[in-house]
Amino acid sequence: MKKRHVIGLGVIAIAIVIIMSSIGDASSYENFATALEMKQNGEDKAIHVVGKLKKDISGEVQGIEVREDKTSFTFLLVDTEGTEQKVFYNQPVPADFQRSEQVVVIGSYRDNEIFVADKILMKCPSKYQETTVTAGNL
Amino acid sequence: MINTFVGNFGHLSTLIAFVSAVVTAFAYSQYFKANELDKPSWRRFSRVSFYVHAVATLLIAGSLFEIIYHQRYEYFYAFSHSSKALPVHYMISSFWEGQEGAFILWAFWNVVLGLFLVHSNKFWEAPVMVVFALVQAFLISMILGVVVGDLKIGSSPFILLRDATQAPIFEVNPDFIPEDGTGLNPLLQNIWMVIHPPTLFLGYASTLVPFAFLIAGLVTKRYAEWIRPALPWAIFSAMILGMGIIMGAYWAYVTLNFGGYWNWDPVENAVYVPWLILVASIHTMITFKKSATALKTSIVLVILSFILVLYATFLVRSGVLGDASVHSFTDLGLSGQLLIYMFFFMAVAIFLAVRAWKHIPSSPKEASIYSREFWIFLGAITLSLMAFQVILPTSIPAWNALVESFGGISNMAPPADQVQFYTKFQLWFAIVIALLTAVGQFFWWQKMDKKALKDALLMPYLVAMVLAAAIIVMTKVYEWKYILIVLSGVFTIVANSVILVKLLKKSTFKLAGGSLAHIGLGMILIGIMFSSGYSEVISINMSGLTYSNSWEDEMNKEHVLLWINKPTQMKDYTVIYRGRQKKVEGVPEYVPADLLASTGKVNEAIALKDYKTYFKKGDLLKLVLEENDYFKIDYLKNETLQFSLSPMSQFNEGMGGLISSPDSKIYLNRDLYTYVAAMNDFSDPDWKEDEIYEVSPGEQFHVADFVTYFDGVEVLKELEGYTLKEGDIAVKAKIRILDYDVEKILEPTFIVSNNQVGKLPVEDADLGLKISFENILPEQNKFVFKVNQYQKDYVVMKAIVKPYINVLWIGTLLLLLGFSVAIYRRFDEFVKMRDKGVE
Q1: Number of other CB atoms surrounding residue B625 within 10 Å
Q2: Burial of B64 by CB count in 10 Å (0-12 exposed, 13-18 middle, 19+ buried)?
Q3: Which residue among A85, B77, B446, B468 is least packed, with the fewest CB closer than 10 Å?
């Protein structure tokens, strides 16, 4: 066997490992129902859930409970299916949290009651929408 | 009055730039094909056409900058990317904050590079400039803003606000011009953001040069000769792109709050991947110049690096990343155009390469294990695999979009813990690269066989082992993976230093580029290992207090809550939050915010007290960005102040909330990095119910938890802002409040005028108190005060120690220096050959 072939086979082998691990380690988008199901089946992998914060009629965010040392909090997230879930986040409340339109939580259920987010991604109202409002208010 | 002239002028320039780019492409192709007789006239025409294009492109940039610089908020671009409060150097950042400005910047660099190439090449001018002009046509089309039927081509930066938004005000008054813009994203208000994007885009633009030479070589059937002119540019491109990446990393480190310099965010990956491939292509091109192998690999890699830049642009700017990235851009509807741009050049390059494939010389002989070609080739493969490993998961959102466009459902998401996921692979690849660069350099400069290799490597190997062992013991690196990094990093540093010394002794500095860059690489590797692998969060509350006694307490709390003035123990330090500060023009240090009162004008304040020698009470002061707060954090050891840090936060209404930036204490061997994650919002205090206190002068009492002294009252003869008439009484009380080591004096005033009672209460934002002087009870010699509490000022802070981060920064500088030396050498080679008439 030539060296060229050995190297070629090596590259293919590594590439396959990379592809498999990318698929294996890839997370997935779920809703709270499927996420809970995963937890009950013993899958602890962190998943993504897209949702919106629970707000009242005046737009105030509902259900944020900040812990006494202000370094963690829980909030209520409503996923795309309409399921409401209490989520714990072990970080201070992010500054633009209350304003965010869409929230993606990455994490998993701790028990049947509470979802623990390792990471939160926030989609704030984009500047392009913002402009309309500001210009209109002037 | 709305100024429509600049916009129309800019738009006209865009049209001219687009048309002239197409004409230039056509003219150069004619020049290329023309017979010797017609060549001079076609050449003249092509050049004139390109100059027209160059001028038009400059005018586009000039018009857009005029709009921003003169604060013409009737234009959408100026309105949404700048504001009155913005200093001039940040207006430059406003220019490229929007996508349209970024495309203009890119086109601008292409023009600069194109002008240079027109004048530095003889033979290559025509075919290279055809490629250039076509790329320019695609780029300018992104900002064309022309609508043909339902088809919108490009998004113009020159549209008026009234055309861009449906704000009702424009129905009433079409000539309405907003007072102020919505401002520049505060994260971009940083000196690195003024120079980072132009560097990055120059890097992007310059990948076009080797690609254009390659295409020219394929078309003219000079399958090998294109390498010489292309090589210095490929190195230039890798250096500039590398510099852009490093600046971006440094910017992230000093302004962003994620606690590091690299986050494996898709936007970062999108630059890292083309850079890796570019570096791989440089190595195979150099090999080819030495030994006529690896030409085919070079061709593939050069095409790949150019296409990957376009793919990266597509990922970042098409909106396809959506939720996956912190800083993806809004979709301007350009995704289709970007895809056409990418697929066009991909198709052309693949077609030409396939057509030429069997004519491309390749060496029939297998490379020996003792040849440099073999080692370089392994290196190129490793770099390509590194790139592949990163681009694959980064493309998951694009994959989802693709599946969905065919009606399928794909719910794949990027890996949950990106840092851990990418590091898992990149760490091993990096170790392999370090070893290859150590061994490879020896093959490069000497003919090798088994024995020679042993002799050459033995000494550096032994030295490296001893040095690495010393580092490992002294810095206590006990993780085996990290030990491997130290070993391989030190090995490449030592081996390349040996080569460097030999080269400098024997010949000129010109040849030292490679070894310098590889020493830099070794240092970068070690620096990353220490600063990331051994970064330590020290902001862990040591008070031992648990708040909820549940599972939550078992989670690592990586932040501490600091009440103002209250010392908190944190690892080796005692930290105290001392309140907010502002930056004042002409004052070299931050100024406590409670010395300043706003005048209601932008960036202006009036001094309430004297401050050192800098200003006096009543002085009018100019603030540097009034919305910036700098939180003063004192670090103490053994009750003596070691240093203070002032992490920043900015409240920006237009941008949506708070944005904060860290501050670091920089030591030779580590950084102490501090940022504020949450803070008290005092804008709309929620006062608690009234508390009434009746006290006599000299009495001590408690307000909230504070020890408080009522020192007495003073009858005032005059009162600022009031005219006291005959018979009016104004009495000011002096209340001293102790908060740890700080003494605050609050002086509420009580006025009786025309049998009417007036009160001037005082508020203290630091203490979260409002005190009002309510009444005087003369017969009991008592005074009545009403106190409302809110809460004391606080910050929630995170502090991280990053060891040996300076090794990383020094390594990057060496890497860039190595690249520069190599560019000089290769360009010198090209010029010499050109002047001999070979090219």
Answers
A1: 19
A2: buried
A3: B446
Q: Are strands A114-123 and B146-148 parallel, antiparallel or unpaired?
A: unpaired
B152 in contact with A, Cβ within 8 Å: no
> Half-sphere exposure (CA, 13 Å, Cβ side) for B826?
24
Q: For residue B481, count other CB atoms closer than 10 A to its CB.
A: 14
Q: Which of B76, B100, B173, B385 to mutate to test the interface with A (most CBs of A within 10 A)?
A: B385
Q: Hey, what are B19's tokens?
A: 């048309």
Cβ-defined contact of B165 to A68 (cutoff 8 Å) = no
3-state SS assignment for residue A67: coil
Strand partners, B615: B611
* Options 3.40.190.10, 3.40.50.790, 3.40.50.300, 2.40.50.140; CATH of A28-123: 2.40.50.140
Let me know: does B97 contact B66? Beta carbons within 8 Å: no
Q: B173 exposed, middle or buried (CB, 10 Å; 0-12, 13-18, 19+)?
A: exposed
pLDDT band at B323 (very low <50, low <70, confident <90, very high): low
B475 inside 8 A of chain A by CB: no
**Tokens at residue B524, please?**
């970068």
- Name the nearest CA neighbour of B690 among B771, B776, B608: B771
| Cα(B632)–Cα(B581) distance, integer angstroms | 7
d(CA A91, CA A105): 13
Say if the Cβ atoms of A132 and B166 lie within 8 Å.
yes
Q: What is the ipTM of this complex?
A: 0.86
User: How does strand A114-123 pair with strand A84-89?
Assistant: parallel
Alpha helix (H) residue ranges in B256-371 = 266-291, 295-317, 335-356
CA–CA distance from B95 to each of B78, B80, B153 (Å)? 8, 11, 21
Taking only the tens place, the pLDDT of each residue in B726-757 is 788 889 999 999 998 889 899 999 988 888 88
Residue found under tokens 């795309």 = A80
Among A50, A90, A138, the residue with its CB nearest the CB of B169 is: A138
Look up the pTM and report it.
0.89
Residues B569 and B578 sit within 8 Å (Cβ to Cβ): no
Q: Does B658 touch chain A (CB under 8 A)?
A: yes
Helix, strand, coil percentages for chain A (3-state, nearest 5): 35, 35, 35
Nearest 5°: the CA angle B372, B375, B379 is: 135
| CB-based contact B761:B768 (threshold 8 Å) | no
Q: With contact defined as beta carbons under 8 Å apart, do B518 and B437 qualify?
A: yes
Q: Identify residue B366 by its one-letter amino acid code.
A: E
Tell me, yes or no, if B379 comes closer than 8 A to chain A by beta carbon: no
Q: How does pLDDT run across B221-279, given as a tens digit for each residue? A: 999 899 989 999 999 999 999 999 999 899 888 887 777 888 888 888 989 999 999 99
Q: Which conformational region is residue B748 in: left (phi greater than 0), alpha (psi within -120 to 50 degrees), or beta?
A: beta
Q: Please say whether the dihedral angle defined by the alpha carbons of residues B36, B42, B46 and B52, taken in this order, is positive or negative.
A: positive
In a mutational test of the A interface, the residue from B171, B184, B559, B683 whose CB has the highest number of chain A CBs within 10 Å is B559
Token digits of residue B617: 């009470």
d(CA B155, CA B147): 10
Query: Which residues in chain B are closer than 8 Å to A11, comparing Cβ atoms?
Result: 381, 385
Which two tokens mark B729?
Answer: 């009484």
